[in-house]
Structures
1.
Amino acid sequence: MTPALAIAGLRTEFRIGGAWHPAVSDLSLDLMPNETLALVGESGCGKSVTAMSVMGLIRPPVGRVTGGRILLEGRDIAGLPEAELESVRGDRMAMIFQEPMTALNPVMTVGDQVAESLRIHRGLSRTEALGRARALFEEVKIPSAAARLGEYPHQFSGGMRQRVMIAVALACDPAVLLADEPTTALDVTIQAQVLGLLSDLRARHGMAVLFITHNLGVVAQIADRVAVMYAGQIVEQGPVGAIFARPAHPYTRALFAAIPRLDRPDQALSAIGGRVPPLDAMPDGCRFAPRCPLRRAGCELPQTLEPLSEEHAVRCHVAAHA
Ligand SMILES: Nc1ncnc2c1ncn2[C@@H]1O[C@H](COP(=O)(O)OP(=O)(O)OP(=O)(O)O)[C@@H](O)[C@H]1O
């Protein structure tokens, strides 16, 4: 089966102090239809830059994609001219964000925003598009869907606004949905509802979802597979069950150790000491080595992702040969 999204060897750079430095390097991942892959890691590790690169939203002079292939349903979209990318964005792939107002237009009714995408990409008339928008609002469970189509984003609560953004993203039935921390700003109950909705929609539409989060609890709820990022690289990837039962990379283990445990309230929260290295001062070898409790000879060399089992891989020579 062709992956809905296949990224191979992605490299994305930013200009800092007159020189270009990679924020994402040698990133490869496959996403099958009807699968959710969670991309996890601390703030600044390159999760959003990965998604923005796929969407073709990183371009000079601010940044540039200098390597790799991005295959959307088998077609390489890396380096497509902007006009061609525009016809793919919002159609075969779409993105949702933590803050819906990033994606929504404050001075346009929500119904027209869903309809606009259908008019541009599908050539529907306004009436046809609004009819479809109403069905989408019902699908994302916005109560009184028909009446609310004529309202503006500020008239919706935070959770309902997320549903509007999801409806806009799903308008053209994309093969790939990139979700960048879409539930992080919501309170826990609403977050659970939106996660449940996304799971249902994924199954119903057979979509591939790349779900960006720093929250391992959310990963457990929504993902089939996990890719852990550190300093612009994937350091471990595998099925959720394997990553949660046998985290191998010292960074993945540190992420788990940093989760507060309700069953052990006395235990001190084990935060990860030190900082992520800045883009212009990346170590040549393992990027986690300066913070790693298992550091030893060999860590000063570049690390490659090595298989631990058929689907589980780790970028650490110590963990790979333990
Ligand atoms: N426009 C930019 N110019 C320069 N550097 C940038 C730019 N955008 C992102 N970066 C850098 O790229 C790196 C990766 O950032 P990114 O936003 O992808 O991290 P993230 O993992 O998504 O974090 P967060 O969870 O905070 O969004 C960071 O070091 C960031 O400072």
2.
Amino acid sequence: MSSVLELKGIEKSFGGHPVLRQVEFALEPGKVVGLLGPNGAGKSTLLKIAVGLLMPDAGQVRVFGEPPSWQSLARIAFLPDRGHFARGLKVEAALAMAARLYDRFDRGLAEAVLKDAHLRPGTRLSELSRGQEARLHLALCVARHPELLILDEPLSGLDILSREAMVETVIGTVSDEAPAVLITTHDLDEVEGHFDEVILLQEGKVVLKAEAESLRVRYGSLRQMYKEVMQP
Ligand SMILES: Nc1ncnc2c1ncn2[C@@H]1O[C@H](COP(=O)(O)OP(=O)(O)OP(=O)(O)O)[C@@H](O)[C@H]1O
């Protein structure tokens, strides 16, 4: 089976400071992979390279077997770590824009994800709480029915119920449609049970790549694994 995403020998520096060093991994269809690592390890940079928003200095990116392109981007939904919406846009307009832009956009699914988030159609994005904005971003991502879902810190700043709703949404999507999912998070407790594989990034290098279940058996939990590997 061919990989959904394949990275080989990825190198990236900012201002002469190396941020990614010889990063390699492959993401298979239907797998949920956790990309973990401390602040500044290079996770967000790597995700931006994976979706073609940043160019690597060296190395190769293949998405669905091809270099990133507009065609491949149409099959990927990317939730960045920071919002990029026009702040004056209203909720209703954001949903309408997504429906116009993406052929497969499922308005009903987006509304189901937004249920209980207390979002009013006429509210401007600048007026949303952080959790409401995160829910809207996630709704716009999953409702596209992507083949590859890339989520950068999807739980950051969310309350307990919103976190549960986010995890349920993502996992529900995975069980229904089996996209490949790549998630960075510092909130391991909520999601670690759903990972199939884990990649640990430290100072821009992959220091561990393994099946989640084997790590759970060996360390008891992924949280414990993280502590032992990162603070030996
Ligand atoms: N556009 C940029 N210009 C200069 N330096 C950058 C840029 N983007 C990222 N960096 C630097 O690259 C390093 C890695 O940043 P990155 O955001 O990828 O880390 P991260 O692992 O996602 O961190 P966190 O867990 O804190 O979100 C940091 O030192 C950051 O300052």
